Amino acid sequence: MKPVKVGILGLGTVGGGTVNVLKRNAQEISRRTGREIIITRASARDLTRKRICDTQGITLSTDSNEVINDPEIEIILELIGGTGLAKELVLKAIANGKHIVTANKALIALHGNEIFSAAKKANVMVCYEAAVAGGIPIIKAIREGLSGNQINWLAGIINGTGNFILTEMRDKGRDFDDVLAEAQALGYAEADPTFDVEGIDAGHKLMILASIAFGIPLQFENVFTEGITKITREDVEYAGELGYRIKHLGIARKTAKGIELRVHPTLIPERRLIANVDGVMNAILVQADAVGPTLYYGAGAGAEATASAVVADVVDVVRALSLNSESRVPALGFQESEIIDSTILTHEDIETAYYLRLTVEDKPGALADITNILAKQNISIEAIIQKKPLHGETNLPVIMLTQRTIEKEMNTAISAIEQLSSVTGQVTRIRLETLG
Fold first, then answer.
1. Buried b (16+ CB within 10 A) or exposed e, 205-222
2. Of the residues 52, 127, 189, 384, which has the maximum number of CB atoms within 10 A of its CB?
3. Cα–Cα–Cα angle for 131, 132, 133, nearest 5°?
4. Which of 206, 191, 177 is nearest to 282 (CA)?
């Protein structure tokens, strides 16, 4: 059979890694697909830039339209990132009858519904394994490997930058700002790290995972995101003393009231495998009714780790080239007519346990006032620890662990506690999940 010709938009880190993997493993890949796969065209903003890949045999251009308008190219790899130009080019390529492989989580999370609909009408595929957790095949695992299950919940460390920062804070007792500066110097964090440290990047990925887990439309605007910028080394230390570790988790859970979609710092028991995922590594824990819990671990970024997922999608497309859209795996794993717009809970309606840290005057009755406020909101205390004053202060750090409660009840309690004359400053609140 004649070779399948591929065009690449973007020859940066992921694009270059993809070229390397496709060329190096060409023979092995053709053994799996029955056809040779050849990259014939690629676009990049700067053709003079030094590449990590060998571009011999590839026609290069600064004009992406030359790639998507080539009638011989059957598959377009969108590896430029962003949601403006990327969306425009992807929709043009689909209109031209091209299959799409993308590593762009923001594009899928924000515009996936529109893109998938256009692809179905054009009878082409849109694959996006590399959009979540780099080289970990989590999309395929949930969409296909667990297709006989009902997914109850999933929780993931899906941003390597945040995980690196929290790991360094725990292992070396460092402050957030100090570790962030190192992450930027190492290239783990951008000059503007907002997407990573405020949970936006993880929120994009969580939305994609939730859609394929529960069969709901993509709706990033309904994902609650909270960053790690307020986590202190004291919080990390106290959590460790209590047998927990702090991780920046994305959590999607199906409940009787609706679906939870949330990204935030989370205390999890240190005995859990996912609590021991450190550095820039990613991991996703999925709880399903038939198989039970399964954990997926690996590199969440990097040239060839991400290229591994991109190339796997190319292989899937080549295998399915002769199939019509009804015979292919649906983009979100469910038939289009079965994507259900379920109720998404607001963050005030979620139910979880909490770690609370507050600074209290060392006087009789101070703790009783706090516990009375919690009791009025039906919040039960699991544990309470009174620490020695910090840095020569007279006020005492107090740490509480609560049982599970509704967030709006905790909001009311915290507001009342902060009004007490015996409490100094704001209450630090970190959500807690046992992931049992």
1. bbbbbbbbbbbbbbbbeb
2. 127
3. 125
4. 206
The DSSP call for residue 321 is T
Distant-in-sequence, close-in-space partners of 375: CB < 8 Å, separation ≥ 6: none
Residue range 48-59, pLDDT digits in tens: 999 999 999 999
- Find residue 288's DSSP bridge partners: 151, 292
Nearby residues of 335 by Cβ (< 8 Å), 6 or more positions away: none
d(CA 267, CA 166): 12
Those residues of the chain that have pLDDT short of 70 are 390-392
Q: Which CATH number fits domain 138-299: 3.40.630.30, 3.30.360.10, 3.60.20.10, 1.10.340.30?
A: 3.30.360.10
- The three-state secondary structure class of 107 is helix
Which one of the listed residues 205, 247, 257, 376 is annotated catalytic? 205
Q: What are phi and psi of 281, to 5 degrees?
A: -75, 155
Q: Where are the domains of the chain?
A: 4-135+303-338, 138-299, 351-432
205 is catalytic: yes
**For position 322, what pLDDT does the model report?**
81
pLDDT score, position 391: 66
